[in-house]
Amino acid sequence: xxxxxxxxxxxxxxxxxxxxxxxxxxxxxxxxxxxxxxxxxxxxxxxxxxxxxxxxxxxxxxxxxxxxxxxxxxxxxxxxxxxxxxxxxxxxxxxxxxxxxxxxxxxxxxxxxxxxxxxxxxxxxxxxxxxxxxxxxxxxxxxxxxxxxxxxxxxxxxxxxxxxxxxxxxxxxxxxxxxxxxxxxxxxxxxxxxxxxxxxxxxxxxxxxxxxxxxxxxxxxxxxxxxxxxxxxxxxxxxxxxxxxxxxxxxxxxxxxxxxxxxxxxxxxxxxxxxxxxxxxxx
Amino acid sequence: xxxxxxxxxxxxxxxxxxxxxxxxxxxxxxxxxxxxxxxxxxxxxxxxxxxxxxxxxxxxxxxxxxxxxxxxxxxxxxxxxxxxxxxxxxxxxxxxxxxxxxxxxxxxxxxxxxxxxxxxxxxxxxxxxxxxxxxxxxxxxxxxxxxxxxxxxxxxxxxxxxxxxxxxxxxxxxxxxxxxxxxxxxxxxxxxxxxxxxxxxxxxxxxxxxxxxxxxxxxxxxxxxxxxxxxxxxxxxxxxxxxxxxxxxxxx
Amino acid sequence: xxxxxxxxxxxxxxxxxxxxxxxxxxxxxxxxxxxxxxxxxxxxxxxxxxxxxxxxxxxxxxxxxxxxxxxxxxxxxxxxxxxxxxxxxxxxxxxxxxxxxxxxxxxxxxxxxxxxxxxxxxxxxxxxxxxxxxxxxxxxxxxxxxxxxxxxxxxxxxxxxxxxxxxxxxxxxxxxxxxxxxxxxxxxxxxxxxxxxxxxxxxxxxxxxxxxxxxxxxxxxxxxxxxxxxxxxxxxxxxxxxxxxxxxxxxxxxxxxxxxxxxxxxxxxxxxxxxxxxxxxxxxxxxxxxxxxxxxxxxxxxxxxxxxxxxxxxxxxxxxxxxxxxxxxxxxxxxxxxxxxxxx
Lengths: 283, 252, 344
Hints:
The structure holds three protein chains of three kinds. Chain A is 44% helix and 16% strand. Chain A is α/β, with parallel strands linked by helices. Chain A has two domains: 1-115, Rossmann fold (3-Layer(aba) Sandwich); 163-281, Rossmann fold. In chain A, helix 5 links the parallel strand 4 and strand 5 (111-115). In chain A, helix 6 packs antiparallel against helix 7 (140-163) and helix 7 packs parallel to helix 12. By secondary structure, chain B is an alpha/beta fold. In chain B, 35% of the residues lie in helices and 27% in strands. Chain B has a six-stranded mixed sheet with strand order 6-7-8-3-9-10, sandwiched between helices. A four-stranded antiparallel sheet of chain B has the order 2-1-4-5, covered by helices on one side. A two-stranded antiparallel sheet of chain B has the order 11-12. Chain C has a two-stranded antiparallel ribbon with strand order 1-2. Chain C is globular. Classes of the chains: A alpha/beta, B alpha/beta, C mainly alpha. Chains in contact: A-C, B-C. Chains A and C meet through strand 3, helix 4, helix 5 and strand 9 of A and helix 3 and helix 7 of C. Chain C: Keywords: Cell membrane, Membrane, Transmembrane, Transmembrane helix, Transport. Chain C: Belongs to the binding-protein-dependent transport system permease family. FecCD subfamily. Chain C: It is a multi-pass membrane protein. Chain C: InterPro entries: ABC_BtuC-like (IPR037294), ABC_transptr_permease_BtuC (IPR000522). Chain C: Its main location: membrane.
C-alpha cells in the first residue's frame, strides 16, 4: 500500500497498537467484517481490523498476511455469497447493491454501515468515526493522524501560495494509448485538486475525454496524471509533445498521481498522495 | 365450379391481367398455356387471393372473399413451382403439413398422409430428409401435401398446378399428369395446370386456356385452341402438326 | 440412405420433466452458503403450506425463500420465454439465424436501460431501468414493424434489415451514452448487459409468470400456423392461415415477452438462438413439440447457467449472460460440427 510505503514506521506502529487494542476489546468473539469500498477497507486496516476482514470488494487492496475473500463489484454483490461469509458488519459506499441483496442481508441480522464517499478530510474523519463506533473502537489515534496530515498539507500549501497565485490544475485519467479523460466536478480528481487548494479548470461534471489541443488552450499550471504506472507523465509527453508548451510543461509540473489511491474519494491513501504531491509542488 | 368474371389486375399502371370471363367445371382438367410473362402465374395468384384485383372470382358460386380461410383451404390447393425449406423436415413431415386445415385424429391423419404418398409415389422415401431430395421428388412431395389438404373437401376441390412437370423425368411427367387427369375425371376435381409442353396439354387436358399479355385469346378443347396460327401468334413458332398412332394430334 | 431420426415426445418428455424437477431441487439446495439439503427442501414445503417442519434457522429459511427460490423460478421462466420466442422468430422468418432480438427488441431495451442508467439519478434506477428497457424494446420493435409494413403486407426482408439497422443505431447511441457516463454508470451498464437473476422480486416473478403462460398458450395454439409458415407465406395462406394477422400478433407478443424478460434480468444471449436448434435436432421442426420442449429445455439450461453463475466465483457473482454465451457458444459449435450434414 502506498501510504504504508511512505510513512512506514509510523503506520506499522499504529497498526500494531490498534490491533492490540482491538484484540483486548474483542477477546471473546472478533467481528466478521466485509468491506465493499476501498476507502473503508483502508480505514479498517488502519484500525487494525485486517485479521477480522472476511470479505472485500474488487477495488480494495489488502496486504499480506490478510486474505479475505473477494466478493466482487460493490454494485453487483451476491446476497448469498455475502451471507456465506457470515458477516457481523458490512461497510460500504452508499451505492452498494443490488437492493435485494441488501434486504436479504439485513433480514439475516447483519449490521450495515453505508458511508458517503469522502470529498474532504472532514468527510474522511466522519467515516473513520462511523466505522470505529460501529466496531466499538476508538477512532482517536487515526483521526489525529488525519488531522496532522491535513495540517501538514495546509502548511505547505500556504507556503506555496505565498510565492504564487492559486494554481490552475487539470486532472487527467490517463488511459494508456486510449486517450485521456479530464476530471470534472464531483469526481475524486476534483476533490484532490481542492485538497491541493487549486482551481479545477474543468467546467463540467464527471469525466470527459479531452484533446491535447484543448489542454493547451486551458494553460494549466499543473497537470495531474492519474495512472497505475508512474511513467505516465513521460508517456503522455511523448505522445503529445505539445503539452510541454503549457505552463505546467514548462515548469515540470506534469505530475504522476497513483490512480489506485483515488478509487474511493479522499481516503487515507489519497491523503498520503496529496502530501506527496504538495512536496512536488513546492519544489 | 370456378368462375372468373371481369378480372383486372394492374401494377403501377401496367395491365397484367384482363380477363372477361372464364369457367372451369367440376371434373374438368384445364391446361393454362402462354408464353413467359403472359400472366399465368399471376392468374394463379389472383385465384389464390394473393394479389388485390378488380372483378370477381368465385368457387362453387361463392366469391372467394366470402369463403372462410380453413374451408377455402380444404377446397383450393396450390402446388407451387419451387419450395424452399430452411428447416430439417422429413418427407413424411412435409406431407403431414397438409393436415393443418383438416380435422383428423392422429390415426386418420397418418392414413391420409400414407394414401397421398402412395398416389404420388413418394412412400419409399418418406423417412428421408426433404433437403436431400431432387427437384422432381420435392415437387411430388408437395403434391402429396396438397392432396392431403384437399382430402376432406365437402364439394369438389380445385387444384392449381404450377408447372408440375418442370423438374420430372419423362416417365414421371406422364405419371404426374395421369394422376392429375384421374383426379379430375375419376374424382370430379377441378384441375388447372400451367404447362409448357403443348403436347401434354393436347394429351391430358380437356380444355385449354391460351393467355397472351394478360388476355385470354382463346379457350376450348386443346385440339381447337392449339392450331398452328395461334401457336405462332403466342410463341412465334410455326409448328408442324402430326397425328400419332392412337389418333391424337401432336405438335412438333 | 440418410434417414431422419426423431425422438418421440412421449419418450423425451418424462425424463426431461424429471430432470427439470431435480435441477430445481439442486438449485434450491446449492449456493455459496452451506445449507443442509433435506431441511432446505422441507423449507420450501413449509413456506407453501405454512407448516414448521424444517430445522432451518430463520436466516437460512430466508436464503431459501428470498434468494434461491425466486431466482430459480425467474431463471426457469425467463429461459422458457427466450427459447420459445427464439423458436417463434426462427419459424416465422424462416431463418435459422433469427433470435428473439432480431426485430430490435434487445437492442432497443439495451438503449432504454442505458438511458436510465446513465442519465437518471441512482435513486430511481431500481424502477426506471427495467421500465425504460421494456419501453425501449417495445418502441423499437413497433418502429421496425411499421417500417416493414406496406399495403400488401409485411416484408420479412425489410423487417430483418430494419432490425439490423436499428441495432446498429442503438449500439451507436449506447456508445455515445457510455462516453458521457460516470465510472459507476459505466460499470452498471456493462453489468446490466451481461444479465443477472440476482434481483428477482415478487413483482418480477408474477409479471414473468403471466408472460410465460400467455406466450406458451398462444403460440401452442398457433403451432400449426408456424408450421405452415415454414413452407413460405403464400403456402401458409393456401393452408388457411391468416398470415398477416398472425405475423402482427407474433411480433407484438414476442416483443412484449422478450421485453419483459430483458427488463427483469438484463440481456441474456444465446438461449433464444441455441435452444430451438437443439430441440429441432431431437424432435424435428414441428412447432407443436418444438415449442413446449424449447420452453422446458430453455428454462432448464438457463437455470443450470445461473447455478454456475452464483457458485463458481463465490462469494462474488458472475453475470449469467457470460455463462450462457461462454458455455453455449462452444457447445453449439461442437454440435454444429457433429451434425452439419443433417442440417440442410
